Amino acid sequence: MKTSIRPVLITFALVWFALVAALLIDVAPVRAANEPKDTTPWKITGQLEEACSCDAACPCWFNSKPTKMTCGGGQVLFIQKGNYGKVNLDGLAIASMGQSPAGETMMESFGNWNFSYTYIDEKAKPEQRKALEAIAKVLDPGASKKTETRYVPITRKIEGKDHEITFGQYGTFRGHLVEGGLGGSPKIVNPPGADPIHHQYAQGRTSKMTYTDADQNWAWDNSNYMFGTFTVDNVQYQKYAAGLAQKMAQMKGEKAPEKK
Fold first, then answer.
1. What is the pLDDT of residues 82-105, one digit of tens each?
2. Whose CA is closest to 174, among 162, 192, 184, 186?
3. Which pTM value belongs to this model?
4. SS (H, E, C) the chain
5. Phi and psi (nearest 5°) for 218?
6. What average pLDDT does range 166-173 have in this prediction?
7. Which of 82, 119, 230, 251 could be cross-linked to 44 through a Cys-Cys bond (beta carbons 3.0 to 4.6 Å apart)?
8. pLDDT tens-digit readout, 3-37
9. Buried (b) or exposed (e) across 228-257, using 16+ Cβ within 10 A?
């Protein structure tokens, strides 16, 4: 069948919550002062395919250090049903790839990743491309100063338990879910780094992963692989941002010294 289409110290938590909350609420400096805030309602339902260089399961979701010097990888969202305002997004896909600096987790280095590249399904029409780009900015806001957006064919081939994902000439990964000790596939629910897309996912391993964009030349196997399903919308991400802002305010209060 073929279809197209990560106890935390207070100092760290303040930085993480501040970065993500600010970026999601659209007060980040990367947004031009005269650029209006996007209030377009959107909703997407589909499947998440994800892989990275870490050994399974990726420790970055728990703010632990990568199992290699860096954590490099990304996610692909295959949208089964979706819309951005009146723009239909059924059957399209978005992918993103990034890498943490050496010795840092993806969470603690958010905003300073070595790169963060977005890949848009090339079969999307111009209005669909704009819609997918807008959603991608919400899902992965300001992770790096080095960014690019490319339009490529994004495909998935499923053979038995193996899922093989390819995005243009730049990358591919092949993964499968592992079996849990009591049967079924292990599931990770609400890890510290979770966003609405990653509220729950099944755990697996890759049999191969390659990537040759962003001045990289990756080639590894037996690394982290994740699979999940999602239904997310702009309201969920607004609430997510508000929740992060509230946590940040609470933690600032806990950190502040008592006045004498």
1. 999 999 999 999 999 999 999 998
2. 162
3. 0.85
4. CEEECCCCCHHHHHHHHHHHHHHHCCCCCCCCCCCCCCCCCEEEEEEEEEEECCCCCCHHHHCCCCCCCCCEEEEEEEEEEEEECCEECCCCEEEEEEECCCCCCCCCCCCCCCEEEEEEECCCCHHHHHHHHHHHHHHCCCCCCCEEEEEECEEEEEECCEEEEEECCCEEEEEEECCCCCCCCCEEECCCCCCHHHCEEEEEEEEEEEECCCCCCEEECCCEEEEEEEEEEHHHHHHHHHHHHHHHHHHHHHHCCCCC
5. -85, 145
6. 98
7. 82
8. 444 433 333 444 444 455 555 544 444 444 455 67
9. bebebbbebbeebbeebbeebeebeeeeee
Whose CA is closest to 144, among 121, 116, 170? 116
Cα separation, 158 vs 98, in Å, equals: 24
pLDDT tens digits along 117-168 = 999 999 999 999 999 999 999 998 889 999 999 999 999 999 999 999 999 9
Rg (CA), the chain: 18
- Identity at 9, one-letter amino acid code: L
Contacts of 86 (CB under 8 A, 6+ apart): none
Q: Which is nearest to 22 in space by CA: 199, 245, 218?
A: 245
Is the separation of the CB atoms in 187 and 201 below 8 Å? yes
End-to-end alpha carbon distance in the chain: 69
CA angle centred on 58, ends 18 and 227, rounded to 5°: 100
State the pLDDT at residue 34.
53
Environment class of 7 (CB within 10 Å of its CB; exposed 0-12, middle 13-18, buried 19+) = exposed
